[in-house]
Description:
The chain is mostly beta strands. Helices cover 10% and strands 43% of the residues. The longest helix has 16 residues, at 280-295. The model is unreliable at 1-19 (pLDDT under 50).
Amino acid sequence: MLAIAVGIIFLVLAAHSKTEAAVKDFQVSTQTWNTVDVMVGDTGYLRPQTENLKDPLGQPVQIASWVYSSHDPSVVAVDGDGCYQALQMGSSEVSIQGYSSSGMLLFYATCTIQVSVDMSGVTLEKNNLTGYLCGESQFSENIQILSSIVLNEENSEFTYSSTNPDMSVGCSLKDNVLIIESGSEGKAVLRVTINGKVFEVPITITRLEITKRSYVGSKGKTFHLRIKGTREKVVWSSSNPKVVKVARSGNVRMRRNGNAVITAEVAGHKLGCAVSVISSKLLKVVKRAKYIGANWKYSQPKRMQNGYYDCSALVWKSYSRMGKKFGMANYAPVAADLAKWCKKHGKVLTKSYTTQHIQKMKFQPGDLMFETGQDNGRYKGIYHVEMFVGYAVAYYDQKGKPVLNELWAARPEGCYGGGHLMERP
Length: 425
């Protein structure tokens, strides 16, 4: 009876280079079982040993046909002639069967092929990273891996860790590229392990900040902007130089009433300041409203006392600075009566403002927002008023355009977001 066992494989031709795919042929017998190691990209032939093969009667046998099969062809592929190719990291058993012309199984062996990646010559294009964060952006940078074998997370053993647990750092491996991301500033050493080889990458990330994201002033006045967190060259520009002009030094001059965004470009990032130019009289109104909203206490019963306010009293007390009292010399009207007065003496800017009104800077500081729709028997069911006091640059989108938030005298930045009546006294 033919002895059927698991085969031993003998290396015949070794690799010519540690970093290049090698041709490796193996002889396979039906004596013992073993596991052999090859590298991704290696190829060669599995050659069954049949010199001393005999049938149960002790007579030499002739193999008429061979059948080769791989348990996991995504790791090791093998064709009908016994030519294998190591495709990716992993392990696969290759079975070899030889049959007589009558279909009798005369030869059988199972060969376990362990596939790994030769990392001895693999290096990184860069050994450290420095970068910046600003606004809501994330730091993201790629490091090319110099390898003749394409490495990714699917075909490699890949892990990473950071020496700074307080710093958010992420890393992924795709087609010979390390993609490193972070949402926080700081210093850390990123330890990346690929197929047992450790790479250490020091990372330094600094947050860029502009000294002002919002400014409201009057014609002829100036102020200065600068970028904190870098000494690299800053390029300044204005979205409307006729309204606001900026010099190379970051000095800003307000030339005429209107709105504009000052943009600073530095180290591949953009930061900005939204500037509104209004009359000196209206500027006093806006400053007063911001002061009241930030420092006084909200109280409807005490709304007319010094140090207290409610929504309509804030507007009335602020506009009193320029002599505008909405028809009541000594007492603030309710929000609905403020809106009715604005409709009669000013103009309705929009019945329902949207984010586009903000992004296109259609309003000026001092404009009023009214919430409507309550069943209170008042004009348009108005129950609340807020004073718009300017714009702030939140961040820049992927197209490099500034994204603005609206500012209010007594509400957080970006509050409301649209859907309410806007009027100008």
